Amino acid sequence: MITKKYNPLQWIPTGYFAMGLPFVILNLVAPIMFTDFGISDAQIAFWTSLIILPWSLKPIWSPIMELYRTKKFFVITTQFISGISLALVAISLSLPDFFVYAIAIMTIIGFSGATHDVALDGIYMHELSKEQQAKYIGWQGAFYNIAKVVAMGGLVYVAGILEGRIGAMSAWMLIMGVSGGVMICLAAYHIKNLPKGGEVIVLQDRSLSTTFKEIWSVIRDFFMKKHILIFFAFIFFYRLAEGMVIKIVPLFLKADRLEQGMGLSKEEIGLYYGTFGVVAFVCGSILGGHFISKIGLKKAIFPLCCIFNIPFAVYALLAYYQPESTWLICGSIVFEYFSYGFGYVGLPLYIMQQIAVGKNQMAHYAFGTSLANLGVMIPGMISGFLSDALGYQHFFAWALLAAVPAFFVTWFVPFKKTETTNS
Questions:
Q1: Backbone torsions φ then ψ of 27, nearest 5 degrees
Q2: CA torsion through residues 403, 404, 409, 410, sign
Q3: Most buried of 38, 157, 372, 397, CB within 10 angstroms?
Q4: For residue range 1-36, what is the model confidence (pLDDT) as tens digits?
């Protein structure tokens, strides 16, 4: 049987855009939307952090996915589910207890999106060689975050314009409905333009006990890896500072200056944070991938950690000095986002090439990325309460301390495999 060959650029951009869009909507767009409906910062930060829990739970079901359907099946199915669910979120906004219904439906999107991530990452690792993985890791991160441009830039910006014409509820209903339509269109495109990512694993015995034995074997192999505790610490702490600030930054930019915020409109947030910032992230991601390819991941990993974490200081400076210059505000956001993108690519590539090595690569990569998500989710859940208690100025200063463990662990993180440096 002849296997159809797919150009990586035929599916990596669209696949990782589809991976990013639901997550960005749940993680970044929903907080801005809920502020328009009068929900408190503490409630927003807690619940929009909790609904991304499925990205940390995905190792529970990732080992058995390949036993029943191909990775391509799960990618396309979850894209359809996420699209339909986003449309349901739009409908829920008109209901009296909309917040409860919206959070419940977004939880479904969370499980769908997490399953999608496992399957698409599995295709990426199965279809690409290690050299190609390093080459396209920047493209992967870039198009994942182009979803931020569309969501935080385009959709939030348009919501701000529509709000003045048709009201906040109608504006956000339209935005969520359009987002759902985009996901459904991407699912239809991938039916013919996505590789299978390998065949279904056939077991002679498909009984429940055999399935659980297979799951246990996969889990045991992961936790028996050499240096596993150091791996855990590295993955968890690398994004801890990001987890502290990511929920609060959009709220800080929107908050009134009397409340230590920047007093930006939704249009300005969409333009500075959601468009210019994310374009900078995309450029940083691509250049970060080339930087790794040039000098090798072992030499690059500590500089990448520093470049990723230190620039979060710009928000502490903005909160303290509260500059009036839009150029300075926008430039600070762009600088932070470029550094964020440049430094971020080191984490998934390390998990892919140093931790998730072996026959259970897809499941073990899911374990690694789920732990990284915990490093964002746990501080995110408490960040709203801390910012309410401390104020934005002191909150961002304290948030920087969350980066200190990342520097220490990254300096000592082990490398098991000999790397090939590609210029």
A1: -85, -35
A2: positive
A3: 372
A4: 445 677 888 899 999 999 999 999 998 899 889 988
Q: Cα–Cα distance between 107 and 103 in angstroms, integer?
A: 6
Predicted TM-score (pTM) of this structure: 0.71
Neighbours of 281 (CB within 10 A): 26
Burial label, 76 (beta-carbon count in 10 A; 0-12, 13-18, 19+): buried
Q: Where are the domains of the chain?
A: 8-412
Residues belonging to the chain: 423
Let me know if 292 is exposed, middle or buried by CB neighbors in 10 A (0-12, 13-18, 19+): buried
- Given 2.30.30.100, 1.20.1250.20, 3.40.50.720, 3.50.50.60, which CATH number is that of 8-412? 1.20.1250.20
Q: Give dist(CA 27, CA 368) in Å, integer.
A: 20
Which amino acid appears at position 167 of this protein? G
Query: CA 108, CA 92: separation in Å to the nearest integer?
Result: 14
Q: Are 86 and 21 in contact (CB under 8 A)?
A: no
Q: What does the pLDDT average to over 312-333?
A: 91
Lowest-pLDDT range of 82-91, 176-185, 293-302: 293-302
- In this prediction, residue 207 carries a pLDDT of 57
The Cα 135–Cα 73 span in angstroms is: 26
Q: Determine the Cα–Cα distance for residues 256 and 132; give it in Å rounded to an integer.
A: 47
